[in-house]
Amino acid sequence: MALKKRQDGRYKTSCRSKGKRYYFYGSSRDEAIAKREQFLSDLEKAPNRDDSITLSEWLDEYLLDAKLRVSRATYTSYERICRVHLMPVLGSVPLVDLQPYHVRTLIAQKLEAKCSTRSIEYMYVILKAALTMAVNEGLLYRNPAAGVRKPKVVKKQATVLTLDQLKILLSAIDDKEYYRLIYTAVSTGLRREELLGLRIQDININRRMLSVNQTVHYDNRQTYITKTTKTISSKRVISLDDATYQYIQDQINEIQYRRQSVFRYKRELDLLFPAKDGGPIYPAYVSAKLKEYVEKAGLPTSFTFHGLRHTHATLLLESGANYKSVQLRLGHSSFKTTMDIYSHITQKMEDELLEKIPKI
Predict the structure, then answer these.
(1) How far apart are CA 355 and CA 256, in angstroms?
(2) What pTM, to 2 d.p., does this model score?
(3) Cα separation of 327 and 337, whole Å?
(4) I need a labelling partner for 360 at 20 to 30 A (CA). Which of 13, 84, 162, 349 fits?
(5) pLDDT tens for each residue of 179-221
(6) What is the DSSP string of 131-198?
């Protein structure tokens, strides 16, 4: 731990750890010593420190751990964030050298690249979780992401259709089976993945209800079914209006006919809205097809498949439905989620109410 003065006027000191010598420099004796002592202090707090591990290597470890804890769909999104966004920017940085400014650099680069603030927040959350795991395993003594403010998400109000616009959209759909799918989506508020995961056995014909029990997802060029939903509250029972009930009955009749006429039909999956062979539909396909009909109908091109869910909730609330009922129907995990998403409707209803107050 000798302290030497270099020719350039700086002071140098060193120490050894796990067979490796580390050097510390400062413009004064005290600064060089302070850096060495800080390193030794940090070493005590991170007993498993390993200078050879890069962030990319550690993210691989984090993904292996995550694969055991989260759903397949969630894992796929984690992996994509790591491979596409985190590793290319910070992957070569040694884990022990990672600093808050690295995290801020990542955020700045992604903002400049026009990534959405929601996506950047997701990157931050995953990176922070991976680094927390490194702290817990003694590789780091502190989390460098913890000192960086989480990116503020700029919430965009979803495009919804009025009742008249919805009728225009439906009248533009010339595919009977796709019409039933869209009508069911907008009349129930189901998420796309929930709708495609519906089975005929999930329909209670006598009580005119449907149950949400599974979802359809896509990754690695494969469409698959998972027996889980987004959250516990997403598993729910939804009442059907007369028109939706009839369209579902027509769809069931279509599927029963197809089971008899299509060779090697995947009847064991029992899907209500399947591909031609009875397997699950590629989720992006139904979204792309809706986009074609939206353009054909001359409606706002910003309207998406998820907009059907927002339209369903908006029409319910504007017709006088209470927020708690809408929360349960949509399968939101909390009442706050429903209020946060549809607070603009509350304001609109409040403004309309003010207009009805008699002038004194």
Answers:
(1) 53
(2) 0.75
(3) 8
(4) 349
(5) 999 999 999 999 999 999 999 999 999 999 999 999 999 887 8
(6) HHHHHHTTS-SS-TTTTSPPPPP-PPPPP---HHHHHHHHHH---HHHHHHHHHHHHH---HHHHHH-
